[in-house]
Amino acid sequence: MASKESNQIPPLAVPEPSPDIGTAITRKPVEPHPTGRVKHNGFVQFVRMLLFVTWFNACCVNIHITQMFGAPLYFFNKDWYYAYMAITKQSFALLITTITQWFSPTVIRVSGDESVRGQIRQSADGRLETDFPERLILIANHQLYTDFIYLWWIAYTSKMHGHMYIILKETLKWVPFIGPGMMFYGFVFMARNWTKDKPRLKYRLKQLKSRHRGPMSGSQDLDPMWLMIFPEGTNLSANTRKGSAKWAAKQGIKDLQHQLLPRSTGFQFCLQELKGTVDWVYDCTTAYEGIPRDGYGQDYFTLRSTYFQGRPPKSVNMYWRRFPVSSIPVDDVKAFERWVNKVWLEKEDLLEYYVQNGRFPADDGQDSSKGTDAPKGAGFIETEVRLAHWYESGSIFIFLAVYGLIANILAKVWNLAIYGTLAGAAVNSAI
């Protein structure tokens, strides 16, 4: 790339907050829609919305109450506290998986290059299974606000869904139940002011590389960690496209067509702070079927169209590859900016390939020099977002159910000891 491309890129890659729920429900998607006409009439949409909101809110309230019950563990045993919160994080991952499975089922197509051979496969019943490492930094292009749902589901397929960490905009922590819940999860909240954000991020990253010996700890006493970063800083839209084009013109570089220009400072800082504890950066290039070349996903796949009208994306396509951290110029600002730009240009080529061919390339080869036991590329895997077992959704409520059972037993013991009957004072007074 030309030297102008290595000029300083705006500071930090921080995803914008999720859209306002009310606006997302009422805003009409652009027509004609990639998935065709609305599949449900107004009454059915209302019922679907009611079920969606009831399930989502019930689970969120339950998870947060469960977190509050476990919060005192922090003062007694931090290893057990972090393990407990990881389990509640698994519950939220199960929640977003169920709402996708039940309300917006869609085809997921997964492929990758030779760097992820042997790590992606399909089970006998058609589910996706991945063997990604327990500690990694995950980067991806940002097409829709719901990108994180599909990426978190990938963590579920690696049994790492209790160890996802996301960088978020600071205002999200004030959302009732969800905000405090994410604070318990150890998510990183940023104000988009590097002077303020740097010490905050440094503190959180220090926690992520500290050593624990709890029941959820991984190898070398380091807790498993998937740190999700969107280097573009926000999702692709008409407004953010203008900002990217303006920045490209200012720097004298070519803007991208299918993505926004990436930002590098925050990403580089994470790699520097986590040096020695993370070996791999995993990159996912995501594309949604049906979005026109000059269109934007958020204009078509709104909350209303995706979950209530029955018009989710026809398919979500993912292309995976990985880079050893040792090969990335982490300590050289200019070289790192060039590396990030190079990665994004490669992703741009992949997205153009998808637009022209309707799917990403796929590796199904095998290194013959390593013998017949060498890992083989998985080719294309076509699957869907779903739980491995239907009863997993019940585990979201398991802690609260146990607490309720214990409270009931203690109440009966108290009544028996004080009043001589399991029924308590009310029965005695009646007698």
User: Unreliable stretches, pLDDT < 50, 5 or more residues?
Assistant: 1-25
Terminal CA distance: 89 Å
The number of helices is 13
From the alpha-carbon coordinates, what is the Rg to the nearest angstrom? 24 Å
Biggest β-sheet strands, sense, barrel? 8 strands, mixed
Shape: globular
Strand content: 5-15%
Specify the oligomeric state: single chain
Widest beta sheet: strand line-up: 6-5-7-4-8-9-1-10
Helix/strand order, N-terminal first = HHHEEEEHEHEHEHHEHHEHEHH
Helical residue percent band = 40-55%
Q: What's the average pLDDT?
A: 86
Find the count of extended strands (DSSP E, 2+ residues): 10
Structural class designation: alpha/beta
Structural overview:
The protein has an eight-stranded mixed sheet with strand order 6-5-7-4-8-9-1-10. A two-stranded antiparallel sheet has the order 2-3. The chain has helices at residues 21-26, 42-70, 78-103, 147-157, 178-184, 194-208, 238-251, 265-273, 297-300, 303-308, 333-357, 398-419, 425-430; strands at residues 107-112, 120-122, 128-130, 135-140, 164-169, 188-190, 225-229, 280-288, 315-324, 381-384. The protein is built from 13 helices and ten strands. It is 42% helix and 13% strand. The termini are far apart. A hairpin with a 5-residue loop joins strand 2 (120-122) and strand 3. It has 431 residues and is α/β, with parallel strands linked by helices.
